[in-house]
Amino acid sequence: MVVNEKQEFGHIRMRARSVCPAPENETLDLEVRAGEIIVLVGGPESNRVRWLTVLAGLRPAAGGDVRFFSDGSTRERAIAYISADEPLLSTFTVRANVMLPRLYHCQEHPDTASKLADEALDGVGFAGDRESLPASLDREETRQVQLARALATDPAMLFLHEPFDFQLAEHWPVITEQLVALARQQNRSVVVATQNLRFAQEHADRITFVDSTHVAAFDDWDSFASAARGYVKSTPLALRGQVA
Amino acid sequence: MERAGTTGLSSMAGWTGRRIIRVGTYPLDLGIFISKSLLAWIRHGHFRNHATRRAAVGHILLTGINPLPATLIVALAVGFILSLPLVPLTATIQATDLAPILLRVIGLELSPLLTAVVIIGRAGSAMATELSNMQLNGETAALVHLEIDVSDFFVAPRLIAGSIAQLVLATYFTCIALFGGTWLATLVLGGSAIELATAITAAVTPLHLSGFIAKNLLFGLLIAGAACYSALQVRRNPVDVPFQVQRAITASLVLVFVLNGLMALIWL
Q1: What DSSP designation does B2 have?
Q2: Residues A52, A56, A61, A66: is their CA dihedral positive or negative?
Q3: A32, A51, A84, B51: which has the fewest C-beta neighbours closer than 10 Å?
Q4: Does residue A44 have a cis bond before it (omega within 30 degrees)?
């Protein structure tokens, strides 16, 4: 992927409340810079999705503002949102699915878009048939194609909803490696909403905890682990005993 | 649960009223939907956008090529059936007097209508089903997160394809029905097919041509528009798919016949 100047500005600044009526302890003041990995943890999943979509600018915040890039410009196509709930187009081949954002937004020639789509699929490790339809892909191949489609427009920021699907447990090391490479080597901002606390512990630059009554940002794993004890009682995390 | 004071008669009246309002406002809703989709297409670069251009060309080929065999058969049959009782009249009236009747009945009235019926059955239902399934699976919602305008990428190419395909197929239908059908009729009954064909060609005026083009473009827009409009009403319920497809087909048929009648009045 080409590194371009917009990646220098890849950050969001948000001081906002969630979309639901909430007490004051639901105000989040977050700044994300290029090359950082931010992890959203906590439960229930609907809360994490809600905050992730607000951070990505896909739904409005109840208060405050979300700004992208240092000059305060509004969201452009330099942002990608990836979720297993965002299916591929069933009547388009794998290659056509990945080409679509570039063809539509960048107005490139189809041959160029096809070549870049192949590069994106190679980059995510897709080894399947690129002329097949999405119905014939397995879960890991579908995840790869969704990621390649999101990366097709070279976004500065990626928002991922639960890339660590339990049914893809054997692929978690590869997924972790990809996300870390996207941030550290390609200098993109990566915001991940996940229950995978090991990923948060080993790779997150900052951790944001959300549940139905709290939202808080922590500068590192240690501050989260020690502070989270008060919240742990009421969250599913307690059941897993993942927090040391 | 009924509200206090509501009787069966008033709830029936309410149901009837709501149905009338829904049916009555449907053409207006459809017209607004079609206009907004075409405006979105123009705003996003129309034919300069590779993605929508490829989609439009693909749908033109699909909508225009697939119904060709059915159109050929129906056109020959219609032309033959209508020419059969009229061709013997050339013994008593001039071909130049018969030609405008054949042109008006077959060329300007029946051809667009029957072509529309073929397209509704083949392409209209296919469009509605495809888009309904995409809407049901959440594929169109995923595109919104990629900042791809559904009206621009899905609806507008289908509208353009429907209009162009309807016009091309109707022209094809008219030629086959008028010339092929009358030729078959003269083969069976005798008479001069060439004289009749020449008279028919000479009877065509710019007004006929412009009316023919306008009617067919409108029919194509209505058929594709009704298919897309109904398909995008599907929510996350599989039962919605056949319901909306059936609604698209019915609405297209009714609107096409009503519009044909209105244009026939204008023609007077």
Answers
A1: P
A2: positive
A3: A84
A4: yes
Q: B142: which 2 tokens?
A: 């995923």
- Give the confidence band of A51 by pLDDT, cuts at 50, 70, 90: confident
Nearest chain B residue (CA) to A81: B145
Q: What is the distance between the alpha carbons of residues A232 and A156, in angstroms, rounded to a whole number?
A: 33
> Cβ neighbours of residue A106 under 8 Å, at least 6 residues apart?
A113, A153
Whether B213 shows a pLDDT value over 90: the answer reads yes
Question: Which residues of chain A does B134 touch, with a Cβ-Cβ cutoff of 8 Å?
Answer: 89-91
CB contact under 8 A, A149 and B146: yes
The alpha-carbon gap from A124 to the nearest alpha carbon of chain B, in Å, equals 19
For B136-143, which contacts have Cβ atoms below 8 Å and span 24 or more sequence positions?
A: B136/B234, B136/B236, B136/B237, B136/B238, B136/B240, B136/B241, B137/A87, B137/A90, B138/A85, B138/A86, B138/A87, B138/B236, B139/A87, B139/A88, B139/A89, B139/A90, B140/B232, B141/A86, B142/A86, B142/A87, B142/A88, B143/A89
Q: Which of B50, B134, B147 sits opposite A110 (nearest CB)?
A: B50
Closest chain A C-alpha to B104 CA, distance in angstroms: 42
Least confident stretch, A61-65, A179-183, B54-58: A61-65
Q: What is the dihedral of CA B246, B252, B255, B260, to 10 degrees?
A: -140
